[in-house]
């Protein structure tokens, strides 16, 4: 829904076709999603990869885990632009996917052809198949990148305490997301089993091969949208607050979708509704620890917005074209 809304208003997109896997004939969008009651002329079509490749220029998959490991193959084989929002194509090693997602993995040669589209730090220009990063992975990697790339922290000391609103769990309600359970509550979940752990580690190892593990935890917040990743790490003895500040300033100086807030730590309401990731960092000389706070809208920077940034890079559009930049005011 959110991806469609953004694509429908994108200045370089002249049409959006919507496909549903369970349809045998077209239905009005509003009959499936009542919020789109005003979009009387928009339909959902039965899905067919032949139709997609004939009438569209790029395909986005906003599908459950386990779908694109096979559904994306015809597009990747044909070199047709494809952006996958699910986790199926992010991990390069198939056995890791099976271990963390508890499902059969895509073939290794398919995984080898997909680009991990962390759009603010590694452009998708020239790429055809994109694995759009997970929401927790996006906030965490953007918060850690300056510290890891500049070699400021002891890499065995990384601890991530991340929290998300319930929309991160998708459309099907579950035990944790049932209103009476989630409302006015905080729930730790997937302890040491979160599927974004191997994804984060895989990218950290691209930046620094010596990183062997991270401590990573997730908590469900009683809100609909927004994700905060709070990151702690021990810095090397001579590292100063000024060196940390310089690492963040230089890493994000020319990055359109990340705003470094210095030692003023950001909160969710300054990014919810936008494609920005806001990142702040504070050094504590007493403990020798740096604390980073990285916030995103899980449905935008954590999913559809980053997918559009990847599309913009693939097609040479301005980096933030079609991206929402205004917060949802209280
Ligand atoms: N929500 C978030 O914050 C984020 C989500 N993601 C990932 O992005 C993807 C989409 O997220 P979200 O919209 O929240 O997920 P939802 O669970 O809300 O929606 C999943 C969609 O997948 C479709 N689907 C299910 N099975 C199949 C199938 N066999 N073939 C084709 N389509 C199928 C469903 O269609 P139907 O209902 O008609 O069966 C539904 O539209 C997921 O993989 C999710 O993990 C990634 C980052 C953040
Ligand atoms: C609140 C909540 O449940 N969030 C989801 C977000 C991850 C997700 O969307 O899944 P993939 O990125 O792996 O596709 C979770 O923690 O599993």
UniProtKB/TrEMBL annotation:
A cellular component annotation (GO) from this entry: cytoplasm
Organism this protein belongs to: Lacticaseibacillus pantheris DSM 15945 = JCM 12539 = NBRC 106106
Domain Semialdehyde dehydrogenase NAD-binding residues, every copy: 1-129
Protein keywords: Amino-acid biosynthesis, Arginine biosynthesis, Cytoplasm, NADP, Oxidoreductase
Superkingdom field: Bacteria
Cited InterPro entries: AGPR, AGPR_AS, AGPR_dimerisation_dom, AGPR_type-1, NAD(P)-bd_dom_sf, Semialdehyde_DH_NAD-bd
This protein's name: N-acetyl-gamma-glutamyl-phosphate reductase
Localization: Cytoplasm
Family: Belongs to the NAGSA dehydrogenase family. Type 1 subfamily.
């Amino acid at each position: 829904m959110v991806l469609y809304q953004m694509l429908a208003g994108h200045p370089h997109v002249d049409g959006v076709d919507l496909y549903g896997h369970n349809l045998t004939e077209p239905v009005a969008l509003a009959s499936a999603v009542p919020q789109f009651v005003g979009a009387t002329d928009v339909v959902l079509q039965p899905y067919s990869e032949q139709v997609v490749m004939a009438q569209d220029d790029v395909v986005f998959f906003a599908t459950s885990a386990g779908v694109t490991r096979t559904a994306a193959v015809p597009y990747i084989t044909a070199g047709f632009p494809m952006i996958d929002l699910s986790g199926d194509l992010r991990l390069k090693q198939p056995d890791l996917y099976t271990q963390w997602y508890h499902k059969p993995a895509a073939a290794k040669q398919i995984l080898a052809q997909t680009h991990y589209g962390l759009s603010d730090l590694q452009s998708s220009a020239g790429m055809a198949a994109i694995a759009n990063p997970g929401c927790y992975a996006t906030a965490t990697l953007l918060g850690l990148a300056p510290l890891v790339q500049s070699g400021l922290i002891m890499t065995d000391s990384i601890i991530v305490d991340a929290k998300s609103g319930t929309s991160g769990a998708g459309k099907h309600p579950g035990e944790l997301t049932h209103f009476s359970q989630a409302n006015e509550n905080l729930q730790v979940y997937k302890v040491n089993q979160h599927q974004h752990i191997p994804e984060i580690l895989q990218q950290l190892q691209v930046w620094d091969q010596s990183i062997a593990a991270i401590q990573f935890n997730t908590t469900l917040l009683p809100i609909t949208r927004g994700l905060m990743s709070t990151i702690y790490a021990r810095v090397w003895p001579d590292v100063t607050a000024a060196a940390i500040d310089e690492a963040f300033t230089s890493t994000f100086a020319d990055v359109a979708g990340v705003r470094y807030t210095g030692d003023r730590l950001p909160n969710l309401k300054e990014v919810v509704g936008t494609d920005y990731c806001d990142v702040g960092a504070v050094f504590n000389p007493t403990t020798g620890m740096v604390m980073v706070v990285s916030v995103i809208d899980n449905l935008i920077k954590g999913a559809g917005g980053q997918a559009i940034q990847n599309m913009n890079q693939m097609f040479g559009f301005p980096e933030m074209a079609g991206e929402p930049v205004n917060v949802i005011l209280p």
